Amino acid sequence: MVGATTASAATPTVLTASASNVKLVNGAQAANVFWIVGSSATLGTYSVLSGNILASVSPVTYELIGY
């Protein structure tokens, strides 16, 4: 994608509280945001996390969960 900026955050785990909302700012688009998770992603009930979650399935493979 020409002119697109990609943001990523690498962390062992992603955990959101119930009814929380992780908002994108400054024109960021969910399609260009990647949360790279080493072991687990736990999203609370009714929480909103924008972007793509890449969760580790094996030491070198990541699975796209969606956005």
TrEMBL record:
Top-rank taxon, per record: Bacteria
Source organism of this protein record: Frankia torreyi
InterPro entries with a match to the protein in the record: Ice-bd_prot
Pfam families linked: Ice_binding
Protein name: Uncharacterized protein
Keyword terms of this UniProt record: Signal
Membership in a protein family: Belongs to the ice-binding protein family.
